[in-house]
């Protein structure tokens, strides 16, 4: 579904991350890990088509990303940003209905079918009771679940998520992880960044460890998320990681 081929990403000609290769199929989760400033956001922005690759190619399906029309892209690729405070007091249901925009004609209003899809997405995320509440008045965790429901209502095959569990309490972190697994089981291709290796260990089919301008490791979480590799990635003594992650085995 999503393929990165010899991809170099960066800003205004300055490379941030070089030589990235990745194949993500339907029903798989890839997790991106790396210290602050290692280029995770830059890579995600390139995957979404917001930044042009400096070298190489992003493939979505059988076509390079740059050849996709905006509407076709919005029907195929959903982005779940971090849940910041919303600016306008849309209801949670209206936020989720925005996921239907790519499926509507110009100036068309959401149909009953769109509302049913939004309702089903809210139910899958376990928040149907929040439908009428202003998005600005629900908690950070509930906003993150609402943004996941919006991506679900978009009916896109590929989901890209920027640290979907950051700023969430423990219960909501587990809820979001369970929903990511459910989306994977429904055949979505899921690409996410996280600062939590234990989350990657739980949901990832493959991990991508990035730092110092390149991919430092790539493959199965069992192989790569070891105290030694994480220690090298985050510049921490492996025994500190062992002491922490040991509880998650
Ligand atoms: P991460 O998400 O892993 O914390 P970023 O992708 O945000 O890392 O940043 C990687 C590098 O790119 C940093 O050196 C940062 O200063 C630089 N950078 C980020 N955004 C921009 C921008 N808009 N213009 C120029 N450089 C940027």
From TrEMBL:
<dbReference type="GO" id="GO:0016887">
    <property type="term" value="F:ATP hydrolysis activity"/>
</dbReference>
<dbReference type="InterPro" id="IPR003439">
    <property type="entry name" value="ABC_transporter-like_ATP-bd"/>
</dbReference>
<dbReference type="Pfam" id="PF00005">
    <property type="entry name" value="ABC_tran"/>
</dbReference>
<keyword id="KW-0067">ATP-binding</keyword>
<dbReference type="GO" id="GO:0005524">
    <property type="term" value="F:ATP binding"/>
</dbReference>
<dbReference type="InterPro" id="IPR003593">
    <property type="entry name" value="AAA+_ATPase"/>
</dbReference>
<protein>
    <submittedName>
        <fullName>Fe(3+) dicitrate transport ATP-binding protein FecE</fullName>
    </submittedName>
</protein>
<feature type="domain" description="ABC transporter">
    <location>
        <begin position="2"/>
        <end position="237"/>
    </location>
</feature>
<keyword id="KW-0547">Nucleotide-binding</keyword>
<dbReference type="InterPro" id="IPR017871">
    <property type="entry name" value="ABC_transporter-like_CS"/>
</dbReference>
<dbReference type="InterPro" id="IPR027417">
    <property type="entry name" value="P-loop_NTPase"/>
</dbReference>
<keyword id="KW-0813">Transport</keyword>
